[in-house]
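Notebook B, p. 112. Complex prediction, attempt 2.
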Amino acid sequence: MSHLLQTTFVPATSPSLRRPLTRTTHYPTRALHIQSKIREIFMPALSSTMTEGKIVSWIKSEGEKLSKGDSVVVVESDKADMDVESFYDGYLAAIMVDEGLSAPVGAPIALLAESEEEIAAALAQISSSSSAAPAPDPAPAPAPATAPDSSTSNDGPGAITGVSSASVSENFSSRSSVANGAMGSSVHPASEGGKRVVASPYAKKLAKEFGLDLRGLVGSGPNGRVVAKDVEAAVAAAAAAKVSASGAALASEITKPSGGGTAVDLGSVVPFTTMQNAVSRNMVESLSVPTFRVGYTITTDALDALYKKIKSKGVTMTAMLAKATALALVKHPIVNSSCRDGKSFTHNSNINIAVAVAIDGGLITPVLQDADKIDIYSLSRKWKELVDKARAKQLQPHEYNTGTFTLSNLGMFGVDRFDAILPPGTGAIMAVGASQPTLVGTKDGRIGLKNQMQVNVTADHRVIYGADLAAFLQTLAKIIEDPKDLTL
Amino acid sequence: MQASISLSLSSSSPITRSDCTAVANAYLCTPRSLRFCGLRREVFESKSLNSFSVSTRLVSCPRDSSFKKVCAALQSNGTPSKGGFDYDLVIIGAGVGGHGAALHAVEKGLKTAILEGDVVGGTCVNRGCVPSKALLAASGRMRELQNEHHMKSFGLQVAAAGYDRQGVADHANNLASKIRSNLTSSMKALGVDILTGTGTILGPQKLKYGKGGSGDTVITAKDIIIATGSVPLVPKGIEVDGKSVITSDHALKLEFVPEWIAIVGSGYIGLEFSDVYTALGSEVTFIEALDQLMPGFDPEIGKLAQRVLINPRKIDYHTGVFASKITPAKDGKPVIIELIDAKTKEPKGTVEVDAALIATGRAPFTQGLGLENINVQTQRGFVPVDERMRVIDANGKLVPHLFCIGDANGKMMLAHAASAQGISVVEQVSGKDHVLNHLSIPAACFTHPEISMVGLTEPQAREKAEKEGFEVSITKTSFKANTKALAENEGEGLAKLIYRPDTGEILGVHIFGLHAADLIHEASNAIAMGTHIQDIKYAVHAHPTLSEVLDELFKSAKVKVNSSSPVVQPVAV
């Protein structure tokens, strides 16, 4: 019995009903025979009239170390919210009853492991015994590992991985991770060149709630401080990007008809989740950004030829396109800037190319940082590493939310042209269509067959003007049509 | 005195319990209430005498024989008793403590004068509890109106609530002036001589006042009370410019509402200002030297308060750190706060904010009092006193006829504690021994919801129990089980009783919840009167009221002895 957790709180009930909290509730004897040092945390009886309790909030999260006397969970009884404290040192191995759910008094609500190594054993136990657990609310099973999507491996110019714009995986809960839209690293006095994040208390709170990494986020507050609306914008941008990618999701269902799309109850009305609400807000907000689009047709014969030549060295087409874009951005830094407050240019010091990748159930935007400075071979290796990490859902926040310019491609679905919605906080996004053999009339009066692709850039006209984009595209076309600089 | 602790205007003098406003009105208009005793009626008559001219005459010829005549006219304020003193009692400082003492002294028939070097009312009325209550009242409503969820649960709809900063600031300022004039008229009505200037003690029973220099007036008094109060404490390294780096003195003027303000210190003052600022839209960063926020509160109450007052609000905090250097904002740069570890003194980074409020406590204001003339050495500025507020000199001997009350002695820096100490001193000088039980003095923090306490905290009680070998029991009740609290949709709250199960003695009561500051008095009165739980538990509380939280608390205590009060004769109704 001594290994039961119990509250130190004396329940607050009417005097006649009061009784000190005792361990008289019929705990399953099973709890006594758990091998090793894994203890169950039970729903305590906070009052004699209490039959079940609702978990208001978990103060500690899974894997966190507990010391004797630490508050672990807040339980709402019929009378009051009470902190439940741990009587033991150890690690909170697994939460069996989530916040907002209820469990009868005496039912296990979590497992406590004595050491970090035993967390795994505790998790194994939960899966084997969860069916036997007396809790009416089944303990949520650990999220099944999702299989990586194969659609990202196709790497020809006509099938460059990715979908439109910066995005976030749907599998990530709104609490655990939301990638923000491509964010720059402009230098502001408060950040000491990005070494330190200066964010207001509420911004920090929001970021924690959304699982957003504040590093790399540029603030619109005084002295470049990150304020709440920057976090909201970043979250909304990430979520919005997901929506703008819905076309891609559709396409991926066409190519993978057996793909496990979640079943939708027809005729039902499903309220937005937090993230979807953010999307909705952002969709409306995006109307306040005056964007415009400029398209360009680029011949890819030379690029294709170069690709064939260096493919054996592990170079990918994505890396080549990212490199070409980065080299063009070096000459047109304005296209790498953004407008955050409606009053100023934010000139980003790095060229970070975010490339959208579809992963199972969503998409994410791994970022090739300093794509202009890194050679094509390293860039390709980096890209491979990022894609592997993305599939394993191990991308670190700075690996998906620091982009300054976004590449999006639907070419692999045969889409020849489209436009993308600009992720808030960035200046421009380039939509890349399929490279197709095209009959072309040349200046010397001949007709020939050339591989051509259409690109379409969406940009914020407050900072990037038509001539800027035109010049940028002209440079990009020159680089792609004469790609020898890519391998330098 | 903590800026945040509110006073009861009427102070503790039994006669004036009626409220100073009533006194003031009664004076200005025809006296409507004849429950004023004969003494008061004399006051009104004597008021026809211009008190200003009286004091001028005092200044010009203090030892003139005509002085006696003036005094004779001021019969309400008594005549100085034998011994040839100008006054029976002179109080240095017209804050809440001095005011309470003055009123009680007049009641006891003492010829009384009060010295004020600044404005009547002291810190509490002008730069502390009073204006802060006005700000809290306004911001509390703002917070409520902005809480859509809260409003919706009442079935109410409020469209975009907003506020006018100057309007809120004016409310605080107007309240302070109103209370100040109430205080002044309540003293004038009783014929207390209000003398302007700073006071300096020249020797035993002798002091001078004035603006310094040769124009000072020397007076003698049988007894002297020092009640000079305190000023905000600004640790070294911190540069206060009154604009971006401020103390409570400036903050109460609410000259601007910064987007992000750091509050150095998370005691009463800091906590109350965090309540004001977050309700008005600021974000707050606490900087606390101790390892935990809200030191000084009962740990359990502190924990709950943190969950309600800190965590859900736009507040973050650094604990275990000192602000070693604070540079005000200038040239477009923000306020820069350098942090060091409170223990190791290692640098712990910097914080850059729009403003910083220094709420690290208060320092006694005892300079220039002339304490050296009577061989008294202050300790960190505080005047050393014994349990009867008698001043102790450098040799550890009592200084006869000299007392010190309130923040200046540092015993309990609360406005109402100062007043209670003042009354205790007046009792002593008028021949009745009196020792104030500080454990019966309640304290309150006026956040939303409020925090209040009286007596010992749980750790203090357990320590005492260990030393003295008795048992301690704890019982708690929740506001969630209270009908009135639920009707207000304010079920968040806890009342905690610390007591001796063997005797039923109340050791401490701590309340966090709606109107906690008003609820605590049932417990503080019980402690002051020595009422035990087994007796008070039979007292009846109106239903449904918040006071039932305490009713339930007393009833839930398990005391091993039975009620001691005799059965009362039944009264027919």
